[in-house]
């Protein structure tokens, strides 16, 4: 399929998405719209982690930390000085925190940029570690960010966090950033840099023997992933309108990792499918946390039970389909064309 046809079909698909979002705004209730928003944010986070882990082979567990950085930076910038006066009741906010204000677009970019800066700074020493050690170190980084956020009340309002964050992150903003993230990831993976990412993932020793500066490329991938994790955190903060340090526990990273592994390490399509399916199922499974009455017998609800169920599902996926839904395969227009003709996808 030639390039012009592919571009035209992509534009048609984006147009269909725009029509669906326009229809959803006028016809769906707030709960369903919230789920659609969460799908977009989760896809952004899954793509960012898949870039680091699935395509470059770096086992990172620091996503919650980057999300927290993006969320706090964005929140500080989009809240008005008047809001901050009423929020900071433990201690008065620092002057630069109190007086900072910016449009939502600038705030989201700033959240991603600060997260990327932290990714660059911590990546420089940590990426010299390998495999499991890198995972433990990045997990430690995420926990350090959370503890610091809990203990600098003049910047983050401490354990109270932020309430009443302006809810700018609607369907258009979230899916706009989702499409931008998708476009960036596809472009970089289809470039020579993307080929180098995959070469490092497949055989780091062979990549070094070919003259590739493995450390520099790893740091580049890690920084890109941190940027979009920060963007995802910024959008999530505005979507939920409230954040606090307890929100950024390891379970947040686990949720994103679950999407990436279920969809398939090294598959963009898998991240999109799993991001959509898991977000919907996590909401649908809330019924298992409610009391169940069967005749005269009542089983009390168990908070957190849906995560237990989903953890079991993840174990089954790892046991019986280790490569995930898509493995490393992708669905593209050529695949669709072959399927329509009755051929093998």
Helix content: over 70%
Q: What structural category characterises the helix and strand content?
A: mainly alpha
Number of strands: 4
> Cα distance, first to last residue?
14 Å
Mean pLDDT, nearest integer? Answer: 88
Shape: globular
The helix/strand series, from N terminus to C terminus, equals HHHHHHHHEHHHHEHHEEHH
Specify Rg, calculated over alpha carbons: 21 Å
How many H/I helical runs? 16
Portion in beta strands:
under 5%
Strand order of the largest sheet: 1-2
Largest sheet: 2 strands, antiparallel
Walkthrough of the structure:
- Strand 3 (292-294) and strand 4 form a beta hairpin.
- The radius of gyration is 21 Å and the shape is globular.
- The chain has a domain at 28-249.
- The protein has 16 helices and 4 strands.
- Helices cover 70% and strands 3% of the residues.
- With 345 residues, it is an all-alpha fold.
